[in-house]
Amino acid sequence: MSAAMLADTVASATSERARPGRTRSNSARVALTACAVFAAMVFGLPAAWILIGSFRTNSDLVSSWSSPTWSILVPAQVTLENYVDLWNGGFGLALLNSAVVCTASVLVGVAVSAAAAYPLSVYRFRGRNAIFAIIVVSFMMPFEAIAIPLAQQFQDWGLANTLVGLILPGIGNGLAIFYLRQHFLGIPGSYREAAMLDGASEPRILFSLYLPMSGPALTNAALLIFLGQWTAYLWPLLVVSDNSLQVAPVALAQTFGQHAASYSENFAGAVLLSLVPAISLFVLQRFFGRLTIGSGEK
Amino acid sequence: MTLAPTSRSGVSTSRRRPSAARHQVLWTIIFLAPAIVALLALRLAPSGQAIASSVFKAFPGGLVPPTFAGLDNYVALFGDPRFVDTVVRTLVFNVIINPLQIFVALLLAVLLVQRIPLDGVWRTLLFIPVTIPIVGSSVAWGAALGPDGPINTLLEAMGGNPQPFFTSPTQALAGIVVIASWIGIGYWMMFLISGLQAIPGELYEAARLDRAGPIRTFFSITIPMLRRPLLFVLVADTVSNFVLFVPIQMLTDGGPQDSTTLLMFDAYRTTYEYGSRNLGAAEVVILTAIMLFFVLLQFRLLREEKEKK
User: Per residue in A53-84, is it b (16+ CB within 10 Å) or e — as a string?
Assistant: First the structure.
């Protein structure tokens, strides 16, 4: 739900900062470090295990589980065959479907959210509070809780088994609107007044003034919509039954459920699914760490 | 140019002020309409749809038009011991998993804001599971906790007995807790770390001067100052765990012996596998109501604590 805040949070949580700590004895420091290393291992090792396993042959991977040796983590040989097999086996198409759904959702979703955030940040008008209520309620309510009734509506509207049916839920994102509005509020009103004096129309002000000043907020809104769609599982499961339209998470779960499933190939699928969110979050962490909006108002 | 008094926005616009105001209304509508239509149709209307559907009755297949049935569906659900068990199981699951995840996340957050070498590295490692979509982590833990998986091998090597995990009615739900927590703890930890870093250092300085021990400092300074982020993660975590679905659908299908059938999964199964749309809609309504109750309860608890202060 809160991926928008997440990138910011990750940025601040992983950045170095003066901390309220006191000088401790060496033994306390060693104990604390040991605890941190242990926790990091508990959380990090399974991820490393998946990553390494995705480069092993399935027989090598599965046989390594029968003895408690380092072979659980160390492959006998490194191979790319899992990735090749995945690509040939239809997972490539599923990834492509996911990419199309995500791209379209981000483009339309960010445009719709930014357009809505603009009047909410610069105008006062009757009904504004009602609109805020709609926005807040819409992001407090988890999407899964409404997915089942909504999927039945989509069925009735003829949107089952269509790309549009997969994309639409990604574009109405209350949190993205909320987040962009917060950012727009920080842009000095004098900029807008100056642009109006120059005769700029409202869309022009939004596109040429507000959006260029909102790089990080737009990226954050885009990330929020993107991650939601990239990891979506229940929704595509409900609205798509045609395998040629299926998105990557559901495709992975379906191959995992098959009896002849290759663990190493499934691990490779999990790695491919994780790659994009991992890269975007860790890259944006640097990005958000540095960029802050500079107000030029005197 | 007219000689009308100049407005705040200057001479050139004052001449067409009435039309500017009309323009403003027009643009507000144009800008807001797509988002509001999307939110109403895609986020809010389905809840109303679920409520409406839950008071009707239809035969699976939909050949006969549904008839109004009042609260019959709800009465039928609560008269079914399997459904009551599912509700109780969902409540127990949430009463355990949410405090557990937040407690461990808080512990790790406090640990990782201490001055320890390479703290950024440990934080990053703890955060890595968050980037793995839950389908991927279900694949991983499904394999790791399989009958011939590496966890059982390690258990045996340490002198334990191999465990059935997902094939045992007493262990499967714990396995689901592990999967959800492997992802969740690092996620909520990040919010708590930011919260901890926002606490002014002077407060700790003052506590030190007063010779307060670490435990006292934690309960008298850290916890009260962290109340807002704690509430946020608790509410958001509760919401996400009430709708937990993926590992159950992928790994246990609600079994063995219904031991992992939580309300969200049950609503899905009733609607799609048993084909009872109206009964499924009633389950969705019940799930939403329970979830809202817990969220409001948590807000309430926070507000009361605030007033006490």
Answer: bbbbbbebbbebbeeeeebbeebeeebeebbe
Among A53, A81, A79, smallest CA distance to A65 is for: A53
Question: What ipTM does this complex have?
Answer: 0.85
Q: What are the chain A neighbours of B124 within 8 Å (beta carbons)?
A: 14, 282
Packed helices A163-171 and A92-122: angle between N→C axes, nearest 10 degrees: 30
Angstrom distance (rounded) from CA B135 to CA B141: 10
pTM: 0.85
Q: How many residues does chain B have?
A: 309
- Half-sphere exposure of residue A65, counting CA atoms within 13 Å on the CB side? 21
How far, in Å, CA of B185 to CA of A232, rounded? 20
Half-sphere exposure of A180 (CA within 13 A, CB side): 34
CB contact under 8 A, B115 and A19: yes
Q: How far is A209 from chain B (nearest CA, A)?
A: 16
Residue of B nearest to A20 (CA): B201
- The token pair at B170 is 């007493």
What pLDDT, in 10s, does the model give residues A58-102? 888 888 888 777 878 888 888 898 899 888 888 999 999 999 999
* pLDDT reading at A298 higher than 80: no
The minimal CB distance from A145 to the residues B141, B199, B284 is found for B284
Residue type present at position A58: N
- Say what the pLDDT of residue B308 is: 53
Residue-wise pLDDT for A211-260, tens only, equals: 888 888 898 889 889 999 999 999 999 999 988 899 999 999 988 877 66
Q: Are the C-beta atoms of A137 and B292 separated by less than 8 Å?
A: no
Say if residue B147 is preceded by a cis peptide, omega within 30 of 0: no
Inter-residue contact B142 to A263 (CB < 8 Å): no
- In this structure, the number of other CB atoms found within 10 A of the CB of residue A253 comes to 23
The nearest alpha carbon in chain A to B42 belongs to A169
Residue B111 CB partners (closer than 8 Å, separation 6+): A32, A35, A36, A39
pLDDT value for B10: 41
Element (H, E) at B57: strand B56-57
Task: Flag if B140 and A177 touch (Cβ within 8 Å).
Answer: no
CA distances from B289 to A235, B94, B195, B286, B300 (A): 21, 15, 30, 5, 16
- Beta-bridge mates of residue B57: B67
C-beta atoms of B148 and A171 within 8 A: no
Interatomic CA distance for residues A146 and A174, integer angstroms = 15
Chain B residue with minimal CA distance to A110? B35
User: Per the omega criterion (within 30 degrees of 0), is the bond before A203 cis?
Assistant: no
- CB neighbours of A23 closer than 8 A, spacing ≥ 6? none
The pair of structure tokens assigned to B157 is 């090597």
Q: Looking at the DSSP assignment, which residues form a beta bridge with residue B68?
A: B56
Rounded-to-10 torsion of CA B54, B58, B62, B64: -140
